[in-house]
Write a structure and sequence with these properties.
With 228 residues, this protein is α/β, with parallel strands linked by helices. It is built from 8 helices and 7 strands; from the N terminus they run H-H-H-E-E-E-H-E-H-H-E-H-E-E-H. 47% of the residues lie in helices and 14% in strands. Strand 1 and strand 2 form a beta hairpin.
C-alpha cells in the first residue's frame, strides 16, 4: 500500500514540474540552454568557434564586394571628378594631370563651352569664342570642355588653338563621358555653353550655337554687364 502511495505522488508531481519548466521565462530557458552547452567537449566547442569565425570572414568579404561594386557602378574612384552639381564641378584636365575646378575662378564671370570633334556647329562658333576670350582676357574666364567625345579629343582644340585663348581645357566624365553636360540638361545638344556669375552661381545655359559672334557678345553683356 505504501509503495502505491509513493508511486501516485511521484506520478502526480512529475507533469507539474515539467509544466513549470515549460512556462519558465525565456531568459531562464536561454540560461538553461547555455548551461547545457557548457557540457560540450572541447572539440565541439572548437568547431563552433571556427564556424563563427568563418561566418564573420564571409560577412566582411561580402561587404567589401558590395562597396567595390558601388564604386564601379558610379564610374570608379570618387576623386576623378564631381559632376553631379554643375555649380561646383571639378573635371580632369584635357591633357596631362590635374583638375579644372570652377571654384578656382571664383571672383570673375566664367563661360564654359562644351565641344566635340564630331560637332559641326562647334566649328562654326569656336572662332568667335576664341576672339572674345582674347578680347575679354582678365575680365571673363573662358573654359573649354570636351564632352560626348567619339573621336580625337584634341581635334578642335588644335584646330582653333583653344589652349592659347581659354584659361583651361577639360574633359567631361561620368556616364557616357558627359556627366557635367548631362547635369546642365544638355541631352544630345552640342554645342552647349554655361554662364557662371562671379560667385560661381549658374546664371544661364545656352543649348545652341552662338553664331555669329555678336550673339555671344550680347549674352555676355546681358549676364555680366561686360562688353568687349
Amino acid at each position: 500500500m505504501a509503495t502505491r502511495r509513493r508511486l501516485r505522488r511521484h506520478a502526480g508531481t512529475t507533469p507539474a514540474r515539467q509544466s513549470a519548466q515549460s512556462r519558465a521565462p525565456a531568459g531562464r530557458r536561454d540560461h538553461l540552454a547555455a548551461s547545457s552547452g557548457q557540457g560540450r567537449s572541447p572539440a565541439a566547442r572548437n568547431v563552433a568557434v571556427r564556424r563563427r569565425q568563418r561566418a564573420a570572414v564571409v560577412a566582411v568579404a561580402v561587404s567589401i564586394l558590395i562597396a567595390v561594386g558601388v564604386l564601379a557602378f558610379r564610374g570608379g574612384s570618387p576623386t576623378v571628378g564631381a559632376v553631379a552639381d554643375p555649380a561646383a564641378f571639378s573635371l580632369p584636365a584635357l591633357n596631362g594631370n590635374g583638375l579644372v575646378r570652377l571654384a578656382r575662378y571664383r571672383g570673375k564671370p566664367v563661360v564654359v563651352n562644351f565641344f566635340a570633334s564630331w560637332c559641326t556647329e562647334c566649328r562654326a562658333e569656336l572662332p568667335g569664342f576664341v576672339e572674345e576670350a582674347r578680347a575679354l582676357k582678365g575680365k571673363v574666364i573662358f573654359l573649354g570642355v570636351d564632352s560626348l567625345e567619339t573621336g580625337n579629343k584634341n581635334f578642335l582644340p588644335d584646330l582653333f588653338h583653344l589652349s592659347g585663348a581659354f584659361a583651361a581645357l577639360a574633359r567631361d566624365v561620368g556616364p557616357g563621358g558627359g556627366g557635367l553636360h548631362a547635369a546642365l540638361g544638355g541631352g544630345n545638344t552640342m554645342p552647349l555653353t554655361a554662364f557662371y556669375g562671379v560667385g560661381g552661381r549658374l546664371l544661364n545655359v545656352e543649348r545652341a550655337a552662338l553664331v555669329p559672334v555678336g550673339a555671344l557678345k550680347i549674352k555676355i553683356a546681358q549676364l555680366f554687364g561686360i562688353t568687349s
